[in-house]
Amino acid sequence: MASTALPSGNGTAPARPANADLGAWLAVAAGTLGALMATLDISIVNSALPTIQGEIGATGTEGAWVATAYLVAEIIIIPLSAWLERVLGLRTFLLIAVTLFTGFSIVCGFANSLVMMIVGRVGQGFTGGAMIPTAQTIIAQRLPRHQQSIGTAAFGVVAILGPLIGPLVGGWLAENLSWHYAFFLNVPISFILITLLLVGLKHQPSRLNLLREADWIGIAGLALGMGGLTVFLEEGSREEWFASPLIQKMAFISAIGFILLLYGQFTARRPVIKLALLLDRQFGSVAIMGMALGVVLYGTSYAIPQFLASIADYNALQSGKVVLLSGIPSILLMPFVPFLLKRVDIRIAVAFGMGIMGLSAFMETSLTLGSTGGDFTESQLMRGVGQIMGMLFLSQAVVQSVPPEDAGDASGLFNSMRNLGGSFALAGISILQQNRLWLHSRRIEETLNANSPAVQDYVNGLGQMISSPQAGIRMLGQQIQGQALVMTYNDIFFAMSIVTLAVLPLVLFLRPLPRNAALGAMH
């Protein structure tokens, strides 16, 4: 980092610190590009998911795993990134991550089965998740303090827009080329990124001796606990919960994993995740609100394209444009970030942001069979305002709520909690789709008496339109399923609004940010 000149003996003002050189900015560009690629791939498959499901032979419920697998892997790797960086050195760590990420992207692009796709997405999540927190490290290490806000603003735009433009990019590629290119796109970007890393970052010696000091028990517990829990949530409804041997095994594996994770908290010199931070009133509140934020961010970016594809017959590109709407307010508000941090009380800002996000989800609970992308315009724009306010101030509260030596652990834990919220959202959507669709279908059918003259006239009318009484009955069944599906999505958006509004009282536990607080990186 650039040094600051000492004041001269004649009382003149100290010289301005030197600006970052070209190499430093190339390093920041590398970190930002890596974070963009990683965040983009979180949601790049969402719009093209119906097409991908058809080609790899996956059901709608199984298709959720294509998105969930990436998030779960990210949850595991993000807390480990700081330690892996110390072990391997920053440049070596990033070069390995980018190379493996490219390889796993190629695996996804050539996938012809659900298993192959899941393996590739897990690998992408592990390696892509490693590139996100290291981008923050590069900004802190390579830029002088007076220029860090520039790097942070660029990273903030990437962190917010990555998941939003993912469906648009994936949709355009799926419609104009093929869904395979949503993954092959990473190959040329990776070559640019590797070049920037080699030029912008210096080699640091590895410290392999740290491997002996690692919290291996906690690492194993983290992987088993989170992996088992996600499978339990995803497959529980379809497998009839504990009636299934698979679900019983997943519950057992998850329990063992969390026991190992807790054991590491008391025995390891430096636990893989410092869970004790959650006991802090402010940080615990921030983490819970971050999880709720993840539920809405990732849940809506998954549910909206699915709704538009199944109800409005939108293609992947059209759905991606609707999802991207929430990024417009984020871009417009980003230049005002420093002013907002200094002038707006964190409790007011977070309450406003989370409240707006909850309200935007509630606005999507009155959808009908005639709803199209235009019905999401207002709610998406509101969601964009809410997410920039919520994410912006919660990210700052993470750093301010813990001692400086715990800032890295707190950042990793907060990011994992937010991604965990996204994982819960995708699993919850899958469960609601199965249970509520069946429930609403049965309730609609119960209101239709087969002997009712009105029902018989309606079915006969449909039959006359298509010259087949049996076809009329089938058409009625399709209409019932369509109505039940719309009601199911209304339930999904209602659940997301309740989750967001339920955590609003936690803002009372937040403390105002210091007026001179440095601008922290967001993800």
Which properties best describe this structure?
19 helices; 523 residues; disordered N terminus; mainly alpha; Growth Hormone, Chain: A; 3 domains; single chain
What's the layout of helices and strands?
Blueprint: H1 22-43, H2 49-56, H3 60-88, H4 90-109, H5 114-142, H6 148-176, H7 181-184, H8 186-200, H9 216-236, H10 245-267, H11 281-310, H12 316-324, H13 327-333, H14 337-343, H15 346-362, H16 377-400, H17 407-446, H18 453-465, H19 469-502
Helix pairs in contact: 1-5, 1-6, 1-8, 2-3, 3-4, 3-5, 3-9, 3-17, 4-5, 4-8, 5-6, 6-12, 9-10, 9-17, 11-12, 11-15, 11-16, 11-17, 11-19, 13-16, 15-16, 15-19, 16-17, 17-19, 18-19
Which sheet architecture does the biggest sheet show? Answer: none
Structural class: mainly alpha
Number of domains: 3
Order of helices and strands: HHHHHHHHHHHHHHHHHHH
Helix content: over 70%
Broad CATH class of the largest domain: Mainly Alpha
Q: Might you state the CATH topology name of the largest domain?
A: Growth Hormone, Chain: A
Mean pLDDT: 82
CATH architecture of the largest domain: Up-down Bundle
CATH superfamily of the largest domain: MFS general substrate transporter like domains
β-sheet strand percentage? under 5%
Unreliable sequence segments: 1-8
Count the beta strands. Answer: 0
What's the overall geometry? globular
Task: Enumerate how many helices there are, as a single number.
Answer: 19
Gyration radius, rounded: 25 Å
Gap from first CA to last CA: 23 Å
